[in-house]
TrEMBL record:
It comes from the Eukaryota. Keywords: Cell adhesion, Disulfide bond, EGF-like domain, Glycoprotein, Membrane, Repeat, Secreted, Signal. GO terms for cellular component: endomembrane system; extracellular region; plasma membrane. GO terms for biological process: cell adhesion. It is found in: Endomembrane system; Secreted. Residues 139-295, 306-463 form the F5/8 type C domain. It is a peripheral membrane protein. This is EGF-like repeat and discoidin I-like domain-containing protein 3. Residues 100-136 form the EGF-like domain. Residues 1-26 are annotated as: Disordered. SUPFAM superfamilies: EGF/Laminin, Galactose-binding domain-like. One of its GO terms (molecular function) is calcium ion binding. Disulfide bonds join C126-C135. It comes from Anabarilius grahami (Kanglang fish).
Amino acid sequence: MAEPAKKPKRVLLEEAKKRKRESDQTRARARINIGRAYTQWCELKEAKVSKHGFCIRWFRQLSHQIHVYCSAHGEAYTATVFTTPVTDNRAYQPHGGTTDVNDCANQPCMNGGLCRDLDADYTCQCPSPYVGKQCLLRCTSLLGMEEGEIVESQISASSVHSGILGLQHWGPELARLNNRGIVNAWSSAPQDKNPWIEIDMQKKMRLTGIITQGASRMGTAEFVKVFKVASSFDSKTYTVYRADGQRKDKVFVGNTDNDGTKTNMFDPPIVAQYIRIIPVVCRKACTLRMELVGCELNVQSSTIGCTDPLGMKSRLISDTQLTASSTFRTWGIDAFTWYPHYARLDKQGKTNAWAAANNSRSEWLQLDLENPKRITGIITQGAKDFGVVQFVSAFKLAYSDDGQTWSIVKDQIRRTDKIFQGNSDNNTYKKNLFEPPFFARFVRFLPWEWHERITVRMELLGCDD
């Protein structure tokens, strides 16, 4: 049978507009009908419907009882205004009838998202890298190869090129975007016929893209020209990435020189814990620096797009904005004082962090952001005191608007104080995101467990709004 002829776009657009007009008219008629019922009931109480109308949405009643505001009493009354329960997203009609309301009629999905109408709701299928209820948020955070949030132990490879006389080690831990130095990238061994490099994200993540870069060895440009991407949840079973509807593996175009960057986006995104880059065609050698792009899988709309460093490392947060309960001095010498304003991520020097005078859970480090901000996360780091590794392995957080009255961040499931996992060595980053985030001017870091001495370097994450 011949396929039916497709309607012209103009006809489809007119039909969509007609459906929207009919939906709007249905909503308007239903609102009038329910409004009349409210008014009649209020008149029995010798009162009028207040200007605020109804205290719950008129088209989402869960039973035949409706709450009504009557201005003469200033409180909510309960009235039975029709006998047929409206248990989904339907508009009330006279004589107890209902009419389905299409929640997709107003086109709530943005940025090319496809809307699906549900009972009393809708859902959007968002194109990568957009996420969120209405596809308004971009899942495009840099995930930590360049900045070091992804640590060396998370990166592995099929082989390593040893360089001149075996003295150069082009290991996977060097595969960081814009890494500098004579040996500054990962490169597979010449005899490796199936090279790969892999990153363990340590939990399921949403990956929306990758940025790649080559390197130069002895003045010769080396880079990956073409590659594939595979992913896994358990590091045992891997799936090679394919575009939607395609039967063949997706082949990504890589770099054309040793220093320029090339960005490839994943649409659909990859959800996995392990991400493996598989070079297919290389120039001279399979040599790679890179960064991954994406976001936390369980982060809600309240944190995505609001994870900027607030100024500890950059010194946007000044020294005077940092205070502490006490300060430690190594050997009691003033020159070796571990001041609160030393608690800056990646700070260098003999004394390069805040350390408390006493190992006690009553100690704290406080940040005054000067204005309320949305706080969505924290990165912590330990330090060394003359070779002694020191760090905070668990901590709580408190926040305040005035610096006097404090609230401690709670575990959303247990409803108890949230204890965050801290560091396990002196230099590795540990990142914790807050869901939900909180708004505050003052933030206090509260050590709970530690190794050797309470010692921390840190960065707060968030945004102004």
